Amino acid sequence: MIRTHRKLAAAVSLSSLMLLAACGPAGGPPGGFPPPPVSVITTEARDVPVSLEYTGQTAGFREIEVRARVNGILLKRNYREGAGVKQGDSLFTIDPAPFQLAQARAAADLGVAEARLAQAQRELARLKPVFEAKAVSQKEYDDAVSAERVARAETESVRARLNEAKLNLEWTRVEAPISGIASRAQVSEGALVSGPSVLLTTVTQTDPMYVIFGVSDRDTLALRNDVEAGRVKLPADGKLKATVKLSDGSEYKRGGAVNFIDVRINTQTGTTETRAEFPNPNSVLRAGEFVRVTLSGAVRPNVIVVPQRAVLDGPGGKFVYVVNAESKAEPRPVEPGAWIADGWIINGGLKPGERVIVDGMSKIFAPGTPVTVVDPAPKGGPGQAPGKPAAPAEKQS
After folding, report:
1. Measured between alpha carbons, how far is 240 from 295 in angstroms, rounded to an integer?
2. How far, in Å, CA of 113 to CA of 115, rounded?
3. Which residues pair with 340 in a beta bridge?
4. Cβ-based burial of 212 (10 A; exposed 0-12, middle 13-18, buried ≥19)
5. Is 145 helix (H, G, I), strand (E, B) or coil?
6. Distance from chain centroid for Cα 371
7. Contact in structure between 293 and 214 (CB atoms under 8 Å)
């Protein structure tokens, strides 16, 4: 009987101890477990550069179509296709024979006209003193004056035809209008060229080089609103800098700048045509290739940045966990803005100096859960104050 009472007392004591263990210390996590460890960053306000990336296409600084100014047979191509040419170099030769004959005929007509003019001038000079002596009639003198003027006008007309013939003869030598790279010939030797209606080739000036890209209406409005609200500060000269990545992922070594923004919006694409200019002395950039252009130079002054993994979704929107003065996890609604690298820019909800939890949130079962702050997140994370390296980050559940 005594042994039975002892067993009953021992069972009651054991049950009491298990109940106390299950209840845990007042204010602690359920089950009596210690506060979960978390990693935090300390928020700080700093200037963050604005970076915008778009797909663009290169275009020559000037792209000129080469066309003949006269009709004729194309005798010869005088350049190597795809090679560089200088302004004034001969690209094509059109048969000059007909234009040489026209020039010779105009020169002969000019000789006749000048002879007639000289005769009319002599006649007028002979009649003038006679007329002053009133030895000839007024009509005879007026006829001589008119004849001299008509001869002079005919001479000027023929001289103009001669100059035209010389100009047409010069135009049989089709020259490069600018210095650049000449493309392939569109017409072969022996073909009849009907003046400016026929494209012979094109010459592209590749230094400097343009990169043309479209900025979406959404990005334009967002940037404008941020500038007006003071959330973005543009460069002092108002020109955004630009860099280019080529199709193989390599970065073009020379930087450029935006020099044109269209005031119109393309109704088909909903974008605004924008253009950046890049020096291209070694012809690394070629006209027509697709590139990635990145704009920089603007900054977001005094903003707070937190890692993307620290921002959670809740019924009321996005929020983060902040470790308050009592070392408890406090949910804080935030207003995230733009992304930069792997961080969120926080437009509202946080102040500098607050501790935001970035790792260990899977063990926070309810708001107000006590936590233990361990090593800070690794140095160099978005918006993080300096600290010693931390243990590997824990995945969120």
Report:
1. 6
2. 5
3. 343
4. middle
5. helix
6. 49
7. no
Q: d(Cα 110, Cα 102) in Å, to the nearest integer?
A: 12
pTM of the full predicted structure?
Answer: 0.66
The span from the CA of 82 to the CA of 181, in Å, is 6
d(CA 360, CA 120): 111
CATH code for the structural domain at 34-45+303-392:
2.40.420.20
- If one counts every other C-beta atom within 10 angstroms of the C-beta of residue 318, the result is 15
User: Among the listed ranges 26-35, 71-80, 213-222, which one has the minimum average pLDDT value?
Assistant: 26-35
Structure letter (DSSP) for residue 394: P
Q: Which two tokens stand for residue 210?
A: 């343009």
Contact yes or no for 359/39 (Cβ under 8 A): yes
DSSP 30: G
Q: Where are the alpha helices (DSSP H) in 172-247?
A: 217-229
Say whether pLDDT at 394 is over 60: no
Q: Which residue has the tokens 């130079």?
A: 297
Q: Scanning the structure block, which residue is given the tokens 């275009």?
A: 59
Task: Sort 93 into a burial class: Cβ within 10 Å, 0-12 / 13-18 / 19+.
Answer: middle
Give the separation between CA 31 and CA 48, rounded to whole angstroms: 44
How far CA 356 is from CA of 36, 277, 308, in Å, comes to 15, 43, 12
Helices (H), the chain: 2-23, 97-132, 138-171, 217-229
DSSP3 helix / strand / coil % (the chain, rounded to 5): 30, 35, 35
Q: What is the per-residue pLDDT across 342-385, written as a single tens digit (0 to 9) for each?
A: 788 898 899 999 999 999 888 888 888 899 888 665 544 444 43
CA torsion, points 229, 230, 231, 237, in degrees to nearest 10? 120
Superfamily for the 51-95+172-297 domain? Efflux pump adaptor protein, beta barrel domain (2.40.30.170)
What's the CATH fold of domain 97-171?
Helix Hairpins (1.10.287)
Distance CA 176, CA 90 (A): 6
Domain assignments of the chain as residue spans, ordered by start = 34-45+303-392, 51-95+172-297, 97-171
Look at residue 131 in the predicted model and tell me its pLDDT: 86
DSSP structural state of residue 248: T
